[in-house]
Amino acid sequence: MKVILKITGKIIIWILTVLVVFIVISGIIHSILTLVEKKKYKIGQTIEIDGKDMQAYVTGSGDKTIVLLSGLGTASPIIDFMPLAERLSKDYKVVILEYFGYGFSDSTKKERSNENIVQEIRASLNELDIKGPYILMPHSMSGIYSLYYAINYPNEVEAIIGIDESVPNQTKVNKDDSMSPFIPLLNELGIIRDAAYLLPSIDDGMNINNYYTKEQIKLNKMAAAWNSVNRTVINEYNMGNENTKELYDVKYPNNVPVLAILATESVADVEWLPLHEELISNPEIQKIKVLDGGHYLHWSKADDIVTLTKEFISKNLR
Q: Rounded distance, CA 223 to CA 73, Å?
């Protein structure tokens, strides 16, 4: 019996040693590949904000400037928004910003509060020498930041056109659980990258309408390996309840035109539409439209979003 236990113990120690070695090697390879890939495939222009690099993409021209702001955890907002930006750029100047912790931008330890994120947006637009007021086009969680922006800096926000955007009172209904501070180890040790290589055929539905090129799909998967569940993103996620609470029961400023473009899959939750209706303070210029599709509407309905955007702007903005 003692011999069996001794052999079993050695086997367990050997397995654990191999596992630790594999994880260490995985983390080292991941760190090297991330540096190489980010440098090789960088899209857009790099600007310095608070001593760190933030990535932006600017395209198109026109009297109106649309600023595309991504949802929580979007691997690379530049790639994610590219088909929509290309379509909008025929009529407007379009800016895509990659928050810290996203895409090609650096990470940060700075608190992911409404104020800090909005100040980084403002600083980025100033660094890019793009003058306001702006039409903010937030997806998902950026709806919170856009509302905060419009309330606190009204002269800089001309309108808000949301893509299935988050609203403050949603966490009154359902609070989000906090994520463990250890989750970022999945990113730092290269486990996310390993999973992507082991499961290469997983389809997240991004290219349902063939909006994205093969190169863009490839880059998006790389960006997921760089950024998924990194410490900056997890910090932002864990700030979600506090950021929404700061704006509980707030409505849109009654002089700001708003178009909320919601997804049918989200509206299937009976609370989603009423939560957006609660924000309306001026029904004459604040509207809700529902498009068939999922939460990432711009993956499948970019053309429809552009049509609604042009109609809304021509009717409500000078």
A: 11
Number of domains in the chain: 1
* Residue 74 · residue 102 · CB < 8 Å: yes
Residues 6+ apart with CB under 8 A from 308: 161, 259, 261, 289, 291
Rounded Cα gap, residues 160 and 147, in angstroms: 8
Identify which of 269, 297, 303 has the alpha carbon closest to the alpha carbon of residue 164: 297
CA 291 – CA 271 distance, rounded (Å): 17
> For residue 302, with 0-12 CB atoms within 10 Å meaning exposed, 13-18 middle and 19 or more buried, which class applies?
buried
pLDDT tens-digit profile of 67-85?
Answer: 999 999 999 999 999 999 9
Domain that holds residue 182: 41-316
Mean per-residue pLDDT over the chain, rounded: 90
Q: Rounded to an integer, what distance in angstroms lies between the CA atom of residue 232 and that of residue 107?
A: 6
Q: Is 174 a member of any domain? A: yes
205, part of any domain:
yes
Report helix, strand and coil shares of the chain as percent, to nearest 5: 50, 15, 35
> How far apart are alpha carbons 83 and 88 in whole angstroms?
9
Residue 35 lies in a domain: no
CATH code for the domain in which residue 126 is found:
3.40.50.1820
Predicted TM-score (pTM) of this structure? 0.90
Residue 23 has pLDDT above 70, yes or no: no
Residues 197-248: tens digit of each pLDDT: 666 655 567 877 788 998 898 898 888 888 888 999 999 999 999 999 999 9
In a domain, 297, yes or no: yes
